[in-house]
Amino acid sequence: MTQDLKPMETLLTLDLLSRGGESFLKDFDGSPYDLAFRKQLSTLGLITETKRRYPVAPGEKPVRPLIFLTLTDKGWSHVESLMHSPSITLPPKSTKCAPVMSRLLRHVGSFMDRNDFTISEMFGEPLVGDDTRTPEPNREPLYDPAQEPFPGLVPGPDDFFRRLQSLSREHSSHGGAIKITDIKRLCRDVPRDAVDRLLIDLQNQGRIALYTHISKEFETEEDRTDAVIVAGQPRHFLYFTR
Fold it and tell me: How far is it, in rounded angstroms, from Cα 54 to Cα 61?
């Protein structure tokens, strides 16, 4: 689908995304998007173009209906595909690009705040399939069982991962998640600080993901005590990523 679009048409879909998927044509930054771009997106089924009355303050004179653009379901799917595209082409001289990127970043920031994500969690790891970063030779794991005072008490990451999988079959909840409190309760034979390091190591390997409570009101004292700290933020649940 992306190869069918011109740079300005791609920008228009992203502009609508940054505005929640719909907007009056007159509210876009700078000069309006040309009819030819809008017509092409309509033909492809990515947007709809209708006429609506523009909202005015009480007491103001109503204005005639104006052009209103909306992303269709197909348009939303197309924009989602852009997020997995290795590259997209935008008009290099358009003054619209900076405001669109600014709004998209504010959406990312708002999502991070609502879900208690940190900037390092969003952007600190390489993208899936991204081979542009310089590999880190001989990267040491965060945790080495041999460094424990009593290494026989601490399983290696692979053994601990299999143990977590076994626990998940009986104790998972919240859409397949395992509570960190349950892990530490059921793995009392493993030192608590070693459990933390194992979980962080497995997350760095991409085998699990650690998340926090969406709302603080659901946290218990036990949750706060048993939380694993990642990038300065507490994590209370484990999900398997593979």
Answer: 11
